[in-house]
Amino acid sequence: MVARAHTVAFEGVQARPVEVQCAVTPGVPAFSIVGLPDKAVSEARDRVRTALTSLAIALPSKRITINLAPADLPKEGSHFDLPIALGLLAALDILPKDAIAQTVALGELSLDGDLLPVVGALPAAMAAAEEDRTLICPRASGPEAAWVEACTVIGAGNLLEIVRHFSGASVLEPALPGEVTGGAAARDLRDVKGQERAKRALEIAAAGRHHLMMVGPPGSGKSMLAARLPGVLPPLTPIEALETSMIHSIAGLLTDGGISRTRPFREPHHTASMAALIGGGRGAKPGEISLAHNGVLFMDEFPEYPRTVLETLRQPIETGEVVVARANAHIRYPSRFLLVAAANPCKCGYLTDPAQACSRAPNCGEDYLGRISGPLMDRFDLRLEVPPVAFSDLDLPASGDSSAQVAERVAAARGIQIARFAEHDSLRTNADAEGQVLEEVATPDPQGRDLLTRAAERFDLTARGYHRVLRVARTIADLDHSAEVRRDHVAEALSYRLLSAKES
Question: Residue 161 in contact with residue 170, Cβ under 8 Å?
Fold first, then answer.
């Protein structure tokens, strides 16, 4: 008779159901695992055999066959250890077959029977909830999985505890959700001396999720400004927190089962590979753009990234998702992030400083920023120069609004947008609006339309650039609590857009 247990195989953030079929039949003694297992899954037979031996359970001298169905779905990871062990114990009539068949299990077994934490407990719990099954997992993974209220999660420290649980000798209590983590303390915008225009651009970017490009000499405060962006962003909504945590769960970044309401801030180095940034590698893991989902992706020294890596950003910026294509699978990861890029004006960094500019100016700057293609630059809603701060300004007291004050205005603008797009599931901020929806919400008054039309003709704005100006103007109007997009809103939006015309 075949005993059945259940687990999952991960395709991106999706947990695909897998049935673990175990048969113990007469024949030459053997222990085989079939169904497209990878090396880690194939090695499970040795870990399971030794773990059962530690419980004084000897496998019979028969043929043991484990089939992972569907057989054409690749199985990767060590989390198949526990469901294989439970299926085998059910086949040996040590555990009740019906009870095991009503569970989804995942966990890695050590040789002494202890259960080690694995990645993906949160999406596995969601898959178990959809099938109305109980999730059995390592105790360390229980608080993470318990965030799915529709699923009963049982966390165990070792295989013996699970055996005693199903036999009724010592029933395990359901796991409780982990703590909501607050993240690191946010840095305050008041720490930045001067740069009032850059602070304003940062506020607009946060309010409407507009991509931002900052160009300035070394030491002008570009990285300092970007590091303070998370402090003015509103906390993640429950839906956003779940989306982000699903990705971080697959990547193994959740600690102690805690889910953070703070928006992620990722800052990859400019030597990062395409797989590290976009996703891929072994197991097609999520890249930095997906780990920054619903948060900020800060790319310093933007022109220093390889050209091929930068060009891969174009589609995710537009669609809000990335497809990691492999020969046997196409895996989708969400990647709706706020991109903040920083660059020096030239290779030496002092193109705009007559006292320090190199002899190759202005060709030095054109060659350096020319590494950023026109189509990619066109996707930045806000572009601004960040001038150096005078030494005399560093001794002045802090000026401008604090991060808390800016965050209040950003939260109010985001609230307006949530109400505006309440009937559109795929729209959350002004940066997401397009087509007929954009025309309905962002069409300026006659004076504003006239200004935008003349600017588009004068500076040869692309259709994408034209619409991005409209989106930014709508956000500026929201910050101004204006139901109508006026001429002054359009003028400010254009002032952040036409920097590229001067640079190119």
Answer: yes
Give the torsion sign (CA, 309, 314, 318, 323). Answer: negative
The strand pairing partners of 155, in sequence order, are 137
Q: Residue 225: phi, psi to the nearest 5? A: -65, -45
Rounded-to-integer distance, Cα 281 and Cα 160, Å: 36
The H-assigned helical ranges of 159-227 are 159-167, 196-208, 222-227
Q: Which of 281, 285, 342, 282 is nearest to 119 (CA)?
A: 285
Q: For residue 502, what pLDDT band results from cuts at 50, 70 and 90?
A: very low
6-59 residue pLDDT tens = 999 998 889 999 999 999 999 999 999 999 999 999 999 999 999 999 999 999
| pLDDT range class, residue 265, cuts 50, 70, 90 | very high
| Residue carrying the six token digits 């359009």 | 490
For 98, counting Cβ atoms within 10 Å of its Cβ (0-12 exposed, 13-18 middle, 19+ buried), the class is exposed
> Is the predicted pLDDT of residue 478 greater than 70, yes or no?
yes
3-class DSSP state of 32: strand
Per-residue model confidence (pLDDT) at position 257: 76
What's the whole-number mean pLDDT along residues 341-368?
Answer: 77
Sign of CA pseudo-dihedral 306, 268, 317, 223: negative
Residue-level pLDDT at 227? 93
369 vs 383: CA distance, rounded Å: 13
How is residue 440 written in tokens? 């309905």
Quick one: pLDDT at residue 202?
96
With a cut of 90, say whether residue 470 has pLDDT above it.
yes
Q: Could you tell me the CA-to-CA distances from 348 to 128, 303, 370 in Å, in that order?
A: 56, 13, 15
**Cβ neighbourhood burial of 183 (10 Å; 0-12, 13-18, 19+):** middle
Please tell me the distance from the alpha carbon of residue 201 to that of residue 492, in angstroms, as a whole number: 10
What is the β-pairing status of strands 279-280 and 285-286? antiparallel
- Cα-based distances in Å from 275 to 119, 290, 376: 19, 12, 19
Q: Which of 40, 1, 35 is nearest to 18 (CA)?
A: 35
